[in-house]
Amino acid sequence: MSKNATTNQSKSQQQSSVNPPPPPLDDIDQESDLGIDEEALSRLRGQSQYASGLEDLDSDDEDELESESGTENVDTAKLVRMLYQLPVKNKELSFNMSVFVNYMREHKIDSVLAQVLQQLLEGNQLPYNPHAGFHRALKVQNQKFYFDKISDDSIIKAINMSTYSSEISYLAGIRKFNNVWGLASVIRTMSPVHLKEFEWLLHSITPDKTTLVYHEGFSSQVVLSLVGPASFYGTFYPFVHTLNFRLHYVVMGADNRELALRIFAESVLNDVFHAMNQTEHLLLGLYIENEDCGGYSGVETDRYFTPEYIVANEEIILDELVNAATGAQKVSSEMMFLLDPELMTYKRGQKQYECYFIDQSMHTQEDPEEIFSFAEYFMASVYEGCFLRKHEAEAYMGLFCARRILVNFDVPPKGLQPNLRSNFTENRRLPYKAGGGYGEAEKRDERKPRAEVDEPIDRTEQIRINRALEEDVGFKSRVLKSRAAGSKADPRRVRDANNASNSRFLGSYSAVELERPLSPVWNHGITYPEERTKPVLNRGRGVKITAEEREEDIRPDSRQIKAPLRIHFERNICQLDHRNREFFEQVHKLILLNLMDKGSSDQDMLMALYRILHSHGWKVFCVMMHNQALQEAIFAYMKSRVSVDVINLEFKRYREELNFTLGSDLQEKSSDYVSLLMRCNYLLDQITVRQDPPLPLPDVLPLSVTTIALLRSVNSMIEAQLIWNMENLETDAFPMIMNKIEELRVKYPKDYVVPSTPVIRREKGQKFEPKTKWKPPVQQKADVFVHGNEYKFVMEQDDLFVVLQNAFNRSPMPESIRLDAILLQYLIDTRVDQVWMDYVTDIACCATLPPNPWPRLITAFREAALKMELFFEYEEDLLARVIDINAGKVVDRENFIYNIPSTKIFAHKTIMPIVSMKHGQKMIDYAQMFDNKQFPKSIGQFKIASTLALVGHTFLYGKVTPYLGVLELDEHVFFKGPSGCWFEALQHFCGLIWSHLQDLDSAYRTVSGTFMGYNEKRMSLVDSLSKPKAFKAELEYYLRRKEPVYIKTYVVEDWRYIPVVKHLKLHYINENETDRELFFQEDWANLHTNMFWLRNKAAFHFQQAGPPLQQDPCNRPNLRHAINDINKRIKKAKEQVDYLGAYRWLCTRSLLEETFDHVASCWRMSNSTVGMLEYCNVLNKSLQELIVYAIESPYEEEKSPLKSVSLGMMANAYRYKINKSLERVGALAPSNLDELTQEKLRECMEWDELSQRLLENRRPLSGSAERSLRLDTGSYRGCCLRRQLSL
């Protein structure tokens, strides 16, 4: 290590401020056994004062100052700072300094940094790059900044609304509001003001009366409830991404459960058809959970039916619905609800369906009616949400609670009224208003407001009241009269003359003609099967509710109700992954668990959950869900179900939400957010069709599969940032939640469910026949895979440490200050003090102090971490090692052709100083394999010639770039013929390309396909050869438009399939050579980057495609053309947030100008973690294309050019490399990102669509980390002013 870290005093004086000298870490050594005397080291560290002014100061604490001044071990630096007096002569300076000091103390910036610094210096070893640790710690502080803005009092006030009990036990409402009803322990955390936004949806969501199926002796009614996160909108959730309504179908009739389930299924299907014809809301599909899915929602387990399939297979859907209801499986309509008709705002949501059957065949006083529940869990809606209409809440409670518990019709005598803990002077019955709800009492004592009631009536008190009611003859007669009146043909309860038996149920359809809801009274309880001795997960099968247990067991707070539901919530939490977006679903389940127990909920836990849902991570999650809803809407539009105007408006809102969340002008963001937003906006701009002014129209979004794929890619990039937010929740709130999740996972160790893959199915003995024969990949060690020409010191940086004991023994300083000197020298060498000084200066000199100080400091440490990784060598030494000015020798002066001796490399002198002999010759050998030697010399009246050359940045491989990503080739074909006959030449050229594909197939080359146009439209090898006319027509179309066309194939090198891109470029020259027609966009820069392996080919290409009159390509006029083309490429790379590509073109431009001022920067960028991640993404994309090739290939593996063993080795190499890259300190990636990536890659064990899709989902995750690093490394502070001005 010492040979790479020794300082040179003479070079240090010559080093400019632009390029700081490397850190003289003489004491850095490999990690080893230290043998440190811990007691002596602790004593030395106690005497040292190495914090250097970073401790938190409290000037108000004068007693502490006096006590410290009297001790022997006094921190002199701290005393000086505490005794410092601000200058009083300059009042303006004094005022500004006081504001700045108060700002630093208010946010505790110096104390936080001192705490992190102390944790760093207390170790026995000091890392080579400490800035990454600062970056990770400050990320947590940035998240905590938003948490601390929410006080405990405001949270308690928000989730503890005042409730009051209703006339029905266990049913409560929120004081001063009449739109939220449910259990008091649950609805106290709801906001009736915010839930009013959903009230207008009730009429359109409630099934129309024409959709209910009537049968002789049977009738159906519906109860509507609001469940899911939307129930807590305005309290726990500042905004929600989904609206879930649960529709409880109640079928009443004789003892025929099969017919009742059929009626339920037909009613649900009618509601689905009604939703298809609705103009307000949009139906996306019907979802039915598979009974054997084990709680995992995946494509292979659950069933999702599109509207087109439902219309074409009505009977099949009916059978599916009946089976689902029989097995108590979840059934829901996937919807997009119109939330605001004026603004045309839509919200993704569901309509969930449940079935209950009331058997009225033996309905007598002695033998009351029975009810069969086909819901997944009893009374789940009162614990998962609320009711927005009181009469529906009453009716739902009536389904489960017995008559004596559910007192609804009449008020008992005044002396026997229950104690409602009310301060009213008179506990009088409020008059019922038409349409539901109760009015104000005529005389109310306003000085004594009604008290809050969080608990139902006491059980003993209720039994006493029920017994008194039985003895009250008047009360019993009124009940009997009411029942008798209900059995008669009362016109208020009859739908029409032809349907007299179908009584209205609780006024679901706005029964304004009624004076009060006519809810029937059901006497029933719950009976489990005989073998069920304790509460378990009761998945339906029509559990019967009888009268024997109704008084003892069936209450909302009974163990029979809560225990199965609690187990369901707990197991569901265990099945979810806390490291990604599923964490927020775990948070929601934890809220429901805490609210199940009235009076015993954990307030600290609820406050922690509240803060997490108000964090920036929840905002990022909502942006992802909006993106997903937009994808579904585009897919629905492709099936002609959604209007294009709706999608364009939603796309506009999505862009606004994305920009506000990731880059709001009101909130400063760190550089990783900035780079992510820049990349997302670029991708979205690429698919957006701009309207030319002066048309006042919004931007148009192309509605196609390509757009859906791009939106999915944007979502995957944002997911990487979401993973960062999940990891940054390590505050006082997060450990409490994680401890609860881990506790539940210990309780249910077998409930973690993974997606079903072909390998898992094969291990379970299930039949699976892949499209190709499968062999398990050979497991290899990581050290057997060689990835290009990696620089050893860069790869070993993470294993370098300053060993304090060794440094202490070798230091020449006095022993009393030796440890202090070592630690201070370490901070100076690693530039920690410089980063802190630059940040403080930046904050002090800015016009306004930022509300959040942490993003700017996070960006500073990100840039410092990357500089620590890259700037370990002087630029002069680096250039001397990379550049060889005398490498090329001229071999053809007339055509300006140079050659590297002992190689077949022929090119112009521009790139010769930087071409590696070893690696350049290897690329030449690969390129020769794809030379089309079957080109005829003439066809009819046309003479034909061709040249093939290496182009792009392949010449940088070996010396500047350590990895060979893609091997780029340019095949120039020259047709010479009569003037005006270019069309015939174009047709002949298309035929030659088709023949070339045949030759590649005969030579057993792995051809991915032909890609055409700027959108890279792909035509596979099988389609190209089987449809020659279509292939030639497509190729001709794009060539005439001068859009790029290339063939992509692969060449095998050891364990890797290297992608080879062969660009097809056609020149047509008339016989007199006075006119030329080019069928591609001319690029002067490619002339300087071409590498040939034949001297005559290089000379011919220069004569036919070089500068006019065969002038020197390196003279000023010709260089000006090439530099202009390079500048365009640099500008495009900046727009794509591709700073690595921009630096490569800067390096090429510096070679043309012979200044070499960007070569060192390009080397650093290419050898950093950014270059590693880019290389990993190339491997990922190659694996995807090879899997697609294997699926499409008509060959068996024995004859196929793609071998499973080689592909398996490549997959293993990719896994090892992405693991090492994401674990690097310089990656600045969340630790969970590598874990999630490895877990997903372990599922990619087959040549099928699942493996390709999983690889596709992983590539944007690492790509997001790569692009954020590119921005930091390419920024002003990441490199230097000269590079920034060049960009």
Q: How much helicity do the residues have?
A: 40-55%
Distance separating the two termini: 34 Å
Biggest beta sheet attributes: 9 strands, mixed
Strand content: 5-15%
Q: Outline, from the CA principal axes?
A: globular
Q: Tell me the radius of gyration.
A: 37 Å
Structural class: alpha+beta
* Count of runs of 4 or more consecutive helical residues: 48
Nearest-integer average pLDDT: 75
DSSP, total strands = 26
- Would you identify the regions where 5 or more consecutive residues have pLDDT less than 50? 1-74, 292-301, 407-541, 693-697, 754-779, 1246-1250, 1267-1287
What does this structure look like?
The protein has 1287 residues and is an alpha+beta fold. It is built from 48 helices and 26 strands. The strands form 5 sheets. Strands 6, 7, 8, 9, 10, 11, 12, 13 and 14 form a 9-stranded mixed beta sheet that branches. Strands 19, 20, 21, 22, 23, 24, 25 and 26 form an 8-stranded mixed beta sheet that branches. The relative contact order is 0.08.
Write the layout of secondary structure elements.
Blueprint (H helix, E strand, L loop, with lengths): L1 H4 L3 H6 L13 E3 L7 H10 L14 H8 L6 H8 L7 H17 L1 H13 L3 E3 L3 H18 L3 H7 L4 E3 L6 E3 L6 E2 L1 H4 L4 H4 L5 H5 L13 E9 L15 E11 L3 H21 L4 E7 L14 E3 L1 H6 L1 H13 L4 E10 L4 E15 L10 E4 L6 H5 E2 L3 H11 L58 H13 L1 H15 L55 E3 L13 H17 L7 H14 L6 H11 L2 H23 L5 H20 L7 H17 L17 H23 L6 H14 L10 H6 L28 H4 L4 E4 H7 L7 H12 L2 H14 L8 H17 L4 H8 L6 E4 L4 E3 L6 E2 L9 H12 L9 E2 L2 E9 L16 E11 L4 H21 L3 E7 L4 E3 L1 H6 L1 H13 L4 E9 L2 E15 L5 E3 L6 H5 L5 H11 L10 H20 L3 H15 L5 H9 L1 H24 L11 H20 L7 H12 L6 H25 L7 H6 L1
Parallel strand pairs: 7-11, 21-25
Antiparallel strand pairs: 1-15, 2-15, 3-4, 4-5, 6-7, 6-13, 8-9, 8-10, 10-11, 11-12, 12-14, 16-17, 17-18, 19-20, 20-21, 22-23, 22-24, 24-25, 25-26
Helix pairs in contact: 7-8, 8-33, 13-15, 20-21, 20-27, 21-22, 23-24, 23-26, 24-25, 25-26, 25-47, 26-47, 32-33, 36-38, 41-42, 42-43, 44-45, 44-47, 45-46, 46-47
